């Protein structure tokens, strides 16, 4: 059986997106014939600025990805923090560097999901997802939203929960809040769900 490669590509400043990414990976790897790999996009800020922002240390077990490595994957799940309703500049810079791939449309037809972290309710939980879809569209990638496949967890009203029908998400607040168990469950579900879609698109039977 041919291996279906899912690349989970993320940027994380304070660790929230990294935590979500690891759960997305766990979910994806539960799907038969799927191999899910974590990747980080390159940092664009200096060490001095990162120190002033109290940034977390980068995961030493996750390699940096270059744009051309995207060609190796059968599907993607991209994760990033929000900055004023759009993906962080580090991730946008990575997408900007994919111009040679865009010219050949080599990623067209490949499935992709997205997940994110915002500070608060008004920080772009849905807008960040909507603006990110433009990157996928220009590459011809197939956006895979969660819809309401997460079931009752989508309708939780008794606790603060990030995410939406566009994908999984979390709230960082001032940086001290960590992803909740429910948010991590949704991230796990997203990884599994997108991996299942990628597996079908590659021609594997259900």
Automatic annotation (TrEMBL):
Q: Which chemical reaction does it catalyze?
A: a quinone + NADH + H(+) = a quinol + NAD(+); a quinone + NADPH + H(+) = a quinol + NADP(+)
| Domain Flavodoxin-like: residue ranges | 6-194
Annotated EC:
1.6.5.2
Q: Which cofactors is this protein said to need?
A: FMN
Q: Which GO terms describe its molecular function?
A: FMN binding; NAD(P)H dehydrogenase (quinone) activity
* Uppermost EC category: oxidoreductase
Matching entries from InterPro entries are given as:
Flavodoxin/NO_synth, Flavoprotein-like_sf, Flavoprotein_WrbA-like, FMN_Rdtase-like_dom
One cellular component GO annotation, for this chain's record?
Answer: membrane
NCBIfam families in UniProt: flav_wrbA (TIGR01755), PRK03767.1 (NF002999)
> What family is it from?
Belongs to the WrbA family.
* Protein name (database record): NAD(P)H dehydrogenase (quinone)
Q: Which organism is it from?
A: Trapa natans (Water chestnut)
